[in-house]
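Here is one chain, start to finish.
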Amino acid sequence: MRCDPLQIGPVRLATNLLLAPVAGYCDLAFRTVCREQGGVGLACTDLLSPQGLLRGTAASLDLAQTSAFDRPVGMQLYGSDPTIMADGAQWAVAHGAGVIDINMGCPVDKVTKKDGGSKLLTDLPRAIAIVRAVARRLDGSGVPLTCKIRLCWHDRDFAAGRACSPGLAAALADEGVAAVTVHGRTTEQKFTGSVRLEGIARVVEAVRGRIPVIGNGDVRTPDDAERMVRQTGVQGVMIGRGAFSAPWLFRDVWARLSGAGAAAAPPDLSEEGKVGVVRRYFALMRQYRDDHYAMHHIRRRISWFGKSLSGGACRPLREAVRLAETPDDVEAALQAHLTGALRAPEPVPGGPALRLPRRSVPSPVS
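Its structure:
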């Protein structure tokens, strides 16, 4: 199997792989480290509130932050008012967006209770009105419009063959949307259970090659990506949580999907190389935001990164970073991990459960 780079309207990507717009995770620092590892065709911002963008609130502007290296970048908007969504799209284009995406798939209550995200799957006339308003505003800009959807709201509708996603995707194509991303779960599933590849395949069949369909959900390895393409017929693959522990996943997946073959597959990153990616991510957060932001997020993210590091020392590393009080403490913990100074003692058979010290981070080993 060989996949080609993805074309979204006038925008030609370098690969057919996209970094998902996951709330709280896909800031500029993380998008940058993923791009630096290779394989990313398009990276998307966190979910953006058009009202926040238009008011110039600090939180929204931080989420929309981009750079010359972060290209092409998709900016994803969520909301329920067609005019405000169109105004937000115009703002995003003026601030560097290469693709505008409308979120019709977020299952989180704080989004759906405002009639945005996947709540639009229960109000298709409103969804289409939003698309029409945004498409009119983008006309002539050269920036394509895409949408991200889920299979439907209720599990029972999917089980009964009444999922709205195939018909919605066809309607979106009629309205000029350049591509549709399908997360293969219902809203009721949220992020539990398994992705339903057969549901994504039905969307691919519904648009019949008129626009590309991008599959999303449960892609954590090159095998998962290949299975997604083979079983659904999607033209692109969007990766979210699978990249949180391994930003180099796009590199590995593209080597597989582009037909490079086993001989051309990139070598596994060494432990030092993986820690180097963590360090780079931490440094970029400090550069793009500030130390407070970087410390907060590295404490959250180290558990994800730890999944890709060597198993024996990861728990002590996670604990050391969680307890770190300064950036120097974080660097000390990463260095101690590499030198083996953060090894957990072997538990004594029949003895008490291991409890790590909850005081200071070990000093770096020279």
